[in-house]
Amino acid sequence: xxxxxxxxxxxxxxxxxxxxxxxxxxxxxxxxxxxxxxxxxxxxxxxxxxxxxxxxxxxxxxxxxxxxxxxxxxxxxxxxxxxxxxxxxxxxx
Amino acid sequence: xxxxxxxxxxxxxxxxxxxxxxxxxxxxxxxxxxxxxxxxxxxxxxxxxxxxxxxxxxxxxxxxxxxxxxxxxxxxxxxxxxxxxxxxxxxxxxxxxxxxxxxxxxxxxxxxxxxxxxxxxxxxxxxxxxxxxxxxxxxxxxxxxxxxxxxxxxxxxxxxxxxxxxxxxxxxxxxxxxxxxxxxxxxxxxxxxxxxxxxxxxxxxxxxxxxxxxxxxxxxxxxxxxxxxxxxxxxxxxxxxxxxxxxxxxxxxxxxxxxxxxxxxxxxxxxxxxxxxxxxxxxxxxxxxxxxxxxxxxxxxxxxxxxxxxxxxxxxxxxxxxxxxxxxxxxxxxxxxxxxxxxxxxxxxxxxxxxxxxxxxxxxxxxxxxxxxxxxxxxxxxxxxxxxxxxxxxxxxxxxxxxxxxxxxxxxxxxxxxxxxxxxxxxxxxxxxxxxxxxxxxxxxxxxxxxxxxxxxxxxxxxxxxxxxxxxxxxxxxxxxx
Lengths: 93, 482
Prior knowledge:
Chain A has two helices and four strands, in the order E-E-H-E-H-E.
C-alpha cells in the first residue's frame, strides 16, 4: 500500500500505441502522395524526387501545405487519404 | 437552543472565558466545548478534541473563542468571537455572565486557518476535488525518481505534485480548477487550470505566479504565435515570456541585475512551468516532435520582466496596446542571448550604428527579413539615449535607420558567397534608395532590463519562422487576471 501519491501532470492520453501499417510488398499500381511542407526548396526537392519515382513505374500526386509553420489542414490530410496509398513528406531548407 | 464553543488553550482570551463557559453549563444551557489544541482544555468542561480540525473547518471558524448558537432545528442563529461581555450575555441570555471579566478582549487566530492548514482541510472535507490521475509511489520508491521515470521532467528535478501542493497552487487563481485554459500543441490536449497547477508545482512556482503563467499560455495559444511550429522547429528557438506592469513587482520578478540569468524564483519557474506544460500536456518533447538541431538553455526556462522604473520610457506592453497600469505579457520566439559590448559609443547615433552591426548578425548577417529580435537595453546604454532626450519612439526609429543596408550586399552570390536573399526578395523588400531593412516592420522589440555598471546590452535573436511574418508573430496580451 503506497502512502505517497502524486497527480499525473500529463494529458493522460497515454494510450495504446497504434501498430504501423506494414509497408507494401510491391509499389506497382500504387499512388504516392508527395507532400511539400512549404519550406524553402521543398518544391525543388520534390521536383527532383518525382521523376525517380515515376521512372520506377509508380504514379505520383502532389500536395502542398499552405505553410510549414502550422500543421497540415484537415482537407489536405483527407485528400491524401482519399487519393494516395503512400505519402512522402518532404523537409527542405 | 444549543451552543458550541471552539477554544484553544494557547489563546489567553479562551482561558479568560473559561469561567463564563462554566457559568453557561451551570445554568443548564446545552453547551459543547470543542478544543483545538490540548485535548483536556478546559478540564472542567469535558471538551471534545477537534484533533483533525475538520469540525472547526466546517464551522468556518477563524477566531477563538467562537461561540455558535443553534435553534432546536439545528440551524445556526448567531455566532460571536473573542470575548465581549455584552455579546456573550446577549447570546447566552444570562444577564450576569462573566461578571468581573474585562468588558472586551479580542480572540486569537484559530488553528484551522493557520497558513498551510486551510488547503489540507479543504481537501479532507472534499471541497477541492482533483481530477488528475493519481499516481501511487511505492513506499520504497523516491517520488523524484518516479517523476523522471515517467518522463515528466525537463531533466532537472521537479517538486512532486502532491494533492496538498496542487491545492495550494490553485489558491493563486480565481479560475475554477476544471476550467479549460486552451488546447496545448502538438497534441491539442485540453489544459485545465488544475493541470496547469500540477505542472506549476513541479516547476517550483508559488501560487501567486498562476495569473502570469496562465496569461502566458493563453497568449502563446493565439494562432499568430504558431506555438505548434515553435515547439517542433529545427531551429534554436523556444518560448520566451516578457512581463510588464504591476504583476512584476507583485510576484517579485527580476528586471535588474542578471535579469536574463539565474537566481530569481519567479523568472526561473514561470518559464519552466510553461515548458513543462508543453512537454507534459501537449506532448512536445525533444528528439520526438521537438526536432531542434541544438536548442539552447533558455528552453528550460526563459522569462523576465521589463525595467519600468523610468516613467519616461514606454514599457513594451504599453507600446503594443496594453493599457497603462495593466499587466501584460509578451511571448517571443527566442534563440539564446548574445552579448553586445560597446563601451565607446557616447551619442545615440554612434550607439544605434553599433547596435545595427550586432543586430545584423541575427540568424546570419546576410539574411534580411528572416527573423525578429529583442534588444534588451541595459541601464547604462539607455542613459546614452536618455541624455539626448530619446524615448522608445526615437530609439526604434534610430535603429531602423541604422539597420538599412544596400540591398546588393545581401544578395546571394555577393562577394563570392552563396548565402543571401534571392533577387525576388531583393525586389520585394528594397526601398526607393536601394536599401533593405534587417527586420520586417515591427520585427524589432526593444525592452529595458539589467543592472548598472557596464555598457553592455543583449540581443535575443528570433525564430527563423519569423520570416513568414504574415503568419508568425510575437504576441502581447493584457493579463485577464491581475
